[in-house]
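Sharing a chain and its predicted structure for anyone who wants a worked example. Both blocks are below, sequence first, tokens second.
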Amino acid sequence: GSVVASYPYDDSPTHRPTGVYSKSADDEVFKYLAKAYASHHPIMRTGKPNCPGEEGETFPDGITNGAQWYDVEGGMQDYNYVWANCFEITLELSCCKYPLTSELPKEWENNRESLLAFIEKV
């Protein structure tokens, strides 16, 4: 896990594991949507999730192009965009994939304003 808003494409023509910016035709729209979410999240907006084992990982403005972060061939985000014209971003909301129940109220507070800002863009 991490704390970042990722946008298409997740796959790249080179299939290098990481570091390839794979720009879609709607790249500016995707960045706008990702920033709408990330800019309201107290951790995501810093661009420094500080996840255990990945303390040096950074994401400018709390967003990333999927393939630049890591290449994923055949991902749902790309499939929905290419074949169904769905503008989908992926939200990584926690370093921990399975947070404790006691952590859920804090996660809600971290994400509430981001969700509202994102919904307003629809």
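Comments welcome. Residues 101 and 107 are 10 Å apart (CA to CA).
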